[in-house]
Amino acid sequence: IFFDPQAHTSRGVPFASVIEGICRGLREGERVLGLSSRLILCFLRDRPVAEAEEILDRALVYRHRLAAVGLDSAEAGHPPVKFAQVFARARRQGLRTVAHAGEEGPADYVRQAVEMLGVSRIDHGNHVLDDAELVRQLARARMPFTVCPLSNLRLGIVEDMAEHPLAEMLEAGLSVTVNSDDPAYFGGYLNENYAALAVALGLDQETLRTLARNSFAASFLDQQAKRAF
After folding, report:
1. Along the chain (229 residues), what's the average pLDDT of each consecutive run of 10 residues?
2. Which are the catalytic amino acids?
3. For residue 146, what are the β-bridge partners?
């Protein structure tokens, strides 16, 4: 689960209230639904880097609840390299790193996320297709991409779902997964995203299975859990 503490701490909500409230909800979800989860703390890229450093300090108290740190919010004009230092510190603390890159921004932002932030996954990444050599590099590395089609549509990244680049990304050998993105806000939970793609792109059952299989490979579950699923 991605969460953005700065969206709340910047208006006076204590960090502890943010994360403890989320954790209570997730524990309830596990108790009632049997749904396990971990958190990815995201830094808002349109806020100062110093603020991200401060948020990381507060988050490390809850290190046991965190799987990774990420980078999100308005991408244009906010390259990943700005956050290289705070991401390096997070990695030294044993946290994985992910980043929104190549959704609104160029393919170079994907390259920066990989080379400067040391990410384990690229969130969105649509514009990676603009750099053929980078595509080949990331296909060889099996770098996962967490693609969010209904969000892309609502934000105008694609004008029509039939134009979505997911099929082209798969054909290029990229490890693509399907995801929801702020589903209550953008209007689609996970199944709706799968269904929208399947209808618009005419995806067959084997392609849908590949997408689901990729999601387990890309997850931060341990190898034993991956094999069990």
Report:
1. 95 96 96 94 97 96 94 95 98 97 97 98 97 98 97 95 97 97 91 97 97 95 91
2. 103
3. 123, 177
Are the beta carbons of 97 and 90 closer than 8 angstroms? yes
Question: DSSP secondary structure string, the chain?
Answer: -EE-THHHHTTT--HHHHHHHHHHHHHHHHHHH-----EEEEEETTS-HHHHHHHHHHHGGGGGGEEEEEEES--TT--GGGGHHHHHHHHHTT-EEEEEESSSS-HHHHHHHHHTT--SEEEE-GGGGG-HHHHHHHHHHT-EEEE-HHHHHHTTSSSSGGG-THHHHHHTT-EEEE--SSHHHHT--HHHHHHHHHHHHT--HHHHHHHHHHHHHHSS--HHHHHH-
- 200 near 158, Cβ under 8 Å? no
CB atoms within 10 A of CB 169: 21
Put simply, whether the predicted model's pTM sits higher than 0.70 gets the answer yes
Contact 206, 214 (CB under 8 A): no
Confirm if 146 and 124 have CB atoms less than 8 A apart.
yes
Measured distance CA(210)–CA(98) in Å, rounded: 22
Report the C-alpha gap between 66 and 89 in whole angstroms: 14
Contact assessment for residue 113 and residue 101, using Cβ atoms and an 8 Å cutoff: yes
